[in-house]
């Protein structure tokens, strides 16, 4: 398996790595408090860490819902987090026209699940030679994720990771099929498991307590790590019920360190016994 390299750090080699942060860029106080705590947690647990927050959420279900501060202000905040805490940052890019500005700040460009097959977006991101995190579309068989990966490789960019976030099953429900971890591993790149998006209940506003099934986060995270993932993607907030996006699924920041400890233990066992197929 290839490792993803960001600056002097490598992700996916031996240690479980962490991608975490608020769903969307909020106030400066929330962002700085969250980043500081997440870096402390990562250092305590010896986890490679990438700070995640979206400068815009372009797929909110209503125009009345907070979409984020936008490209310019959002990137400024992410740059401040990056420089203050010396951590790599990642955010979603929704349009090819955003890529150039985003690449000036972001260490990793994230392709949203809904847009993973958008050739113009994927190739524009690939051309930057930045690390790319491409999320598995809810509509796409996992073995077909090799297609957008090959689009990135076409431009000589092999700094890629692939993220699972659940498959649409029936109406307003997402299912995580463990077989997808195996299929995504066949790309040859690190596999990340986005656990907080896969427990969202679509059709219900994320501010509604019924908009997420947070009680399942522990079981599905442990199952994913045991199945051989390389990184955990978890959105976290100091007060989830007050979050401006995905309030029902973000994990409480103060509880995150204890949540991660058993995942590290499981990952260490899995890596010792992993069989390359």
TrEMBL record:
Keyword Membrane in record: no
Catalytic activity: D-arabinose 5-phosphate + phosphoenolpyruvate + H2O = 3-deoxy-alpha-D-manno-2-octulosonate-8-phosphate + phosphate
EC number: 2.5.1.55
Alphabetized UniProt keyword annotations: Cytoplasm, Transferase
Gene3D superfamilies named in the record: Aldolase class I
GO terms, molecular function: 3-deoxy-8-phosphooctulonate synthase activity
Pathway it works in: Carbohydrate biosynthesis; 3-deoxy-D-manno-octulosonate biosynthesis; 3-deoxy-D-manno-octulosonate from D-ribulose 5-phosphate: step 2/3; Bacterial outer membrane biogenesis; lipopolysaccharide biosynthesis
Domain DAHP synthetase I/KDSA: 11-267
Location(s), subcellular: Cytoplasm
Chief location bin: cytoplasm
Pfam family membership, one: DAHP_synth_1
Matching InterPro entries: Aldolase_TIM (IPR013785), DAHP1/KDSA (IPR006218), KDO8P_synthase (IPR006269)
GO CC term, one of those recorded: cytoplasm
NCBIfam families in alphabetical order: KDO8P_synth, PRK05198.1
Family: Belongs to the KdsA family.
Protein name according to UniProt: 3-deoxy-8-phosphooctulonate synthase
Source organism of this protein record: Plebeiibacterium sediminum
Gene that specifies this protein: kdsA
